[in-house]
Write a structure and sequence with these properties.
137 residues, rod-shaped, mainly alpha
């Protein structure tokens, strides 16, 4: 009589289930090893991303500071030129007032002393004026 297949089947099932368990554990081990290997590289990537973000933020803020400093300098320049212009206007006005006052004073002094009036031609005081065309003889 031939051997029954039932006994062999159970053996093969046991063998195959054992093999399956070994394969599953190996697979899980490999998976765990992959995750363990990837973890540091993921952390490094995250750290590098963080560094890049910080560098971008620092660069951006530095650019903003430079921009604001340039704006402040431009405003200061404008204000200084406006102040200089106002000062020049005031100085010109004061100079005009002083010149007018001096002219009034000189004019009054000449009017009182009579030194500023032109001499009439042939006045008879013995001196020739610049307008005389006759030479003295």
């Amino acid at each position: 009589m031939a051997k029954s297949r039932g006994k062999g089947k159970t053996m093969s099932k046991a063998k195959s289930s054992g093999k399956k368990a070994v394969k599953a554990s190996k697979k899980a081990t490999k998976k765990t090893m992959k995750v363990a290997k990837k973890a540091p590289s993921k952390m490094m990537r995250a750290a590098k991303k963080g560094q890049k973000k910080m560098m971008r933020a620092a660069t951006s803020s530095a650019k903003k500071v430079v921009k604001s400093v340039k704006k402040v300098r431009a405003k200061a320049r404008e204000k200084m030129s406006a102040i200089a212009e106002t000062t020049n206007n005031v100085v010109e006005t004061v100079t005009q007032v002083a010149a007018t006052a001096a002219g009034v004073v000189v004019g009054t002094a000449q009017a009182l002393t009579g030194s500023g009036e032109p001499q009439p031609v042939g006045a008879g005081n013995g001196e020739s004026s610049a307008t005389d065309t006759e030479p003295n003889e």
